[in-house]
Write a structure and sequence with these properties.
By secondary structure, this protein is mainly beta. The chain has one domain (2-126): Immunoglobulin-like (Sandwich), CATH 2.60.40. 12% of the residues lie in helices and 52% in strands. It is built from 1 helix and 10 strands. The protein has one helix spanning 2-16, and strands at 23-28, 31-36, 44-54, 57-58, 63-70, 79-84, 86-87, 93-99, 104-112, 118-126. The strands form 2 sheets. Strands 1, 2, 3, 4, 7 and 8 form a 6-stranded antiparallel sheet that branches. The longest helix is centred in the first third of the chain and has 15 residues, at 2-16.
Length: 127
């Protein structure tokens, strides 16, 4: 019985280390931006995808980058992870983000379009 209880406790702890699949959308300066993952977030490496649309058509020539960060708190230093996204064949952009711990991570997603305008979206994800 004790082993069964420990097994269940271990399983519950493992489940809490994983976040949900992310699928966030927003609009800025006439662009529709979607940030999403295909798997649940974990502590460690996570693949994020971004799609950008203008007038319903995918924007395939943008330069996309993101900064995920967790502000300094008592007993914990500031943490940050930056990545540049790479274009994919399906018109999305892919980037690898490493979360060093669970919690709320804020992010700034920036993309530069062919007209040399930089657009920025701010939000957060929970892990």
């Amino acid at each position: 019985m004790k082993k069964f209880f420990l097994s269940i406790l271990s399983l519950l702890m493992a489940i809490t280390l994983y976040g949900d699949v992310i699928d966030m959308s927003g609009k800025i300066d006439g662009y529709e931006v979607r940030l999403f993952t295909k798997k649940s977030l974990i502590v460690g490496d996570n693949n994020f995808f971004v799609t950008i649309k203008k007038d319903g058509k995918l924007v395939k020539d943008a330069k996309v980058k993101a900064k995920f960060f967790m502000p300094e708190m008592p007993g914990m230093p500031y943490m940050e992870y930056k990545a540049k996204a790479k274009p994919q064949d399906d018109g999305s952009y892919k980037m690898l983000i490493n979360f060093s711990m669970g919690g709320t991570w804020q992010y700034h997603l920036k993309f530069k379009t062919s007209d040399d305008e930089v657009h920025k979206i701010k939000a957060s994800v929970n892990l």
